[in-house]
Write a structure and sequence with these properties.
The chain has 346 residues and is an alpha/beta fold. 35% of the residues lie in helices and 26% in strands. It has a six-stranded mixed β-sheet. A four-stranded antiparallel β-sheet has the order 2-1-4-5. The longest helix has 16 residues, at 192-207.
């Protein structure tokens, strides 16, 4: 895999020049991260990252477990302090009391007292923000209606499915009418119907002008709803850009058979391709769609004594980009998964 398909430009790393397509150039920045570093004793969880998130966009914050996503989000919420660098939310330092009133956070698995009803839970959080009486109840009713729980507001949460509990979580996250929302795996573990409903709700929140900072491993959802994404690995931003631009170009799948490749040749192929899969005597090789990349793989097949059966253009997905970035990072750190000699799956 060629490294120049992985490493972002200096502009991408700095967050400059990456406003979402169609955005007003004069639009404000909801989040500004400048050279953020967070260290825990000898461990650097976040290593000099910089990015801007614009008002009214959905920004996907991606990375494998341990990449530094949670540490960054906690810093943005003012729950922990940076070792170095600057973090601004709505133009003020993260943790500012006035700013906190305009933020909201939904964790992956929100915990609520199951003996309470949906209406009571959302109302409780409304009380924390100073809502009371008829004003509070009106807001609770509006939010339960928004998330599709208008007929379940009086039911105990112990009778709720995971999807219904996630809807309660979103309702309570909106009780303070936030400008910026932080969502951590909002569709994880949901059935297909609930999955789509939550995804549509996120798009609705964007249409209201809210900024959404979305951390998720559901890459198909991220591809559908996000304006831009960043991919972290090892505490560093490895890729940052518009979703449409990142997935542009596509890949090529080259199917070959009759190969007599040595271990050394297979190792060479893994450097030339993003994915290989062997089924019987047939090897499917995925590589970038550039002429140079295709020719290198075709030359490899001929050198290995194989015959090319087909060559098909495929559309790149965000999952492809994510795998490439993470795999390259693992190769650099020596943590790549050891695969059998002729099989490498993402």
């Amino acid at each position: 895999m060629a490294q120049d398909t992985i490493i972002p430009s200096a502009d991408a790393l700095s967050g400059n020049g990456t406003a979402p397509p169609g955005f007003d150039p004069g639009i404000g920045k909801a989040i500004e991260i400048k050279n953020l570093v967070k260290q825990y004793k000898k461990v650097t969880a976040v290593n000099n990252i910089s990015l801007d998130v614009y008002e009214g966009e959905i920004f996907g914050f991606l990375g494998p477990n341990g990449a530094g996503k949670t540490t960054t989000i906690k810093t943005l919420l003012g729950l922990i302090f940076p070792t170095a660098g600057e973090v601004l939310v709505l133009g003020k330092p993260a943790g500012d009391i006035d700013v906190k009133e305009k933020l909201s956070y939904l964790p992956e698995s929100p915990y609520f007292y199951e003996h309470m009803t949906a209406s009571e839970v959302v109302g409780f959080y409304g009380s924390l923000f100073g809502l009371a009486g008829a004003v509070k109840q009106k807001r609770v009713d509006e939010l339960l209606d928004l998330v599709g729980l208008q007929n379940a507001g009086k039911k105990s949460l112990r009778a709720f499915s995971k999807g219904m509990l996630q809807r309660v979580g979103i309702a309570q996250a909106l009780i303070n009418d936030p400008k910026v929302l932080f969502f951590d795996e909002p569709t994880s573990g949901l059935d297909p119907v609930a999955h789509r409903d939550i995804r549509d709700l996120i798009l609705h929140l964007k249409s209201e002008g809210r900024t959404i900072f979305l951390s998720s491993h559901q890459l198909s959802d991220v591809e559908l709803v996000c304006d831009r994404v960043s991919i972290l690995h090892g505490g560093k931003i490895r890729r940052l850009g518009h979703v449409d631009e990142l997935i542009a170009g596509g890949n090529v799948e080259i199917v070959a058979e009759g190969l007599k490749a040595t271990e050394a040749q297979m190792a060479q192929l893994r450097d030339l391709s993003s994915k290989t899969e062997l089924v019987g005597d047939t090897l499917t090789i995925t590589t970038a769609a550039s002429t140079e990349s295709k020719n290198r793989v075709l030359d490899w097949v001929r050198t290995a004594g194989g015959n090319v059966l087909s060559m098909t253009q495929t559309r790149r997905t965000l999952e492809d980009i994510f795998y490439e970035v993470v795999h390259q990072g693992e190769l650099e750190t020596g943590t790549a998964f050891a695969v059998p000699s002729v099989l490498e799956k993402n």
